[in-house]
Amino acid sequence: MIAIIILALLPSLLVLIDFIGYNVTGKRLYNIVYSRALEIISILIIPLLYLIGDNQDTNDCCTESATFSPEHILIINVVISICIITYFLSAYKKTIISPIVETLINSILLGGIVFNVFMAIHVQFPYWIVGNLPVILLFVLELSKNQRMISGYSSNFDLSTMNYAEKIAWKILNFRPIFKIPVLLIICLPILVLISGFMLLFGQKPDSIIRAFTDTYKHGFSQLDYMCENVDCGGHFFCSVAAKGHKRIVKPIRLGERGGNRIMCNRQLLIANAFEELIEDNFPKLHKYIRRNYNKVGNVIHRYYLVFNIKIIADMVYIMMKPLEWFFLLVLYTFDRNPENRIAKQYLSPIDRDDINQKITTF
Fold first, then answer.
1. How many Cα atoms are found within 13 Å in the side-chain-facing hemisphere of 232?
2. Bridge partners for 256 per DSSP
3. CB–CB of 213/122 below 8 Å?
4. DSSP codes joined into one string, 202-227
């Protein structure tokens, strides 16, 4: 575990050392090969691994919820891709391309820094150390390199041959940083508007880049945490919902324990869980497939938890689940030697289950 942590932190540490060295000596500490390898790892590979590893299809109160809203993740991926492409375009160019293009490059790099700051706040400690910190430092280094390159080329550019837009761009590039940074940030805004407008063609919304952060649970800018209040984690499934209906209809029989939480159990819920346990014991691969797809049902239910928590709705779910309950009971009585024992053991604490198993074994 320690080796994995050190390996994950190594790129950030190397970038930080390079950043400090550059600001002290004015030169990069690593040769071109090591620098490029470090850039590829920090800016391309690590963010890609994080986005792949992040469960982008799940916005869940009870698990490691998606970092960005699944509905709006596309625009986040596009913005990240644009920042990565811009960085490597800037890093691999040998000379000034043109004043307008250079202005756009520096504006996007600066916007990428701001974007990563917001991402760091959103993903929170310690993930930003591995993912966002090295990106921010490398983008700052690239902006500093560009500034030095622009200063070196200032005397070689003939403003009289430039059109009006190029003259404005060149003047912006030659501003002092205290004036240049705000102007570049302002230029970022129409670029972001153009990206958002283009993403409308792919089903994104005008405010998707904001809602990608806010329409989430348990992260820095999340605004949906209120939806997780009073949510019984592990209970977002049809039989669990049905057990919360009116007592005269759903007929609760006892309390149970699931994931350390108390839940109300009726016979339908116990039968359904006993059936799942039977499948898991005899056909584990089939069980994994069923559970994986059934979890998607739970994800839908928890999004509308307040609706499913209404007793009348729970009653309706209970009634609709009755045919399945009878089917589960038929399977249990057909293939289990002691179906009622299996049913009775559902949602007991581990200690109580062990006591019952020992008594059954003794008899």
1. 17
2. 263
3. yes
4. GT--TTHHHHHHHSSSSSTT---GGG
| 325 φ/ψ angles, rounded to the nearest 5 degrees | -60, -45
Nearest-angstrom CA–CA distance, 196 and 182 = 21
With beta carbons less than 8 A apart as the criterion, state whether 173 and 107 touch. Answer: no
Q: What is the distance between the terminal CA atoms of the chain, rounded to a whole angstrom? A: 45
Strand partners, 261: 258
DSSP class of residue 255 equals: E
What are the backbone dihedrals phi and psi of residue 97, each rounded to the nearest 5 degrees, phi first? -80, -65
Please state the domain extents for the chain.
2-226, 238-362
**Could you give the C-alpha distances from 108 to 4, 101, 105, 112, 293, in angstroms and in order?**
33, 11, 5, 6, 41
The predicted-structure confidence for 38-69, as pLDDT tens digits, reads as follows 999 999 888 887 777 665 566 666 556 778 88
Return all residues near 219 (Cβ < 8 A) that are at least 6 apart: 65, 67, 122, 123, 124, 213
Task: Count CB atoms within 10 A of the CB of residue 59.
Answer: 23
Omega of the bond leading into 284 within 30 degrees of 0 (cis)? no
- Rounded distance, CA 46 to CA 50, Å? 6
What are phi and psi for residue 266, nearest 5 degrees? -120, 175
- The C-alpha atoms of residue 245 and residue 309 are separated, in whole angstroms, by 8
Neighbour-count burial of 94, counting CB atoms closer than 10 A to its CB (0-12 exposed, 13-18 middle, 19+ buried): exposed
Distance of CA 85 to the CA centre of its chain: 22
| pLDDT tens profile 252-290 | 888 787 766 677 788 888 898 889 888 888 888 887 777
* Per-residue DSSP letter, 261: E
Q: The tokens 């698990």 sit on which residue? A: 63
Q: Tell me how far apart the alpha carbons of residues 290 and 62 are, in angstroms, rounded to a whole number.
A: 19
CA distance 323 to 256: 23
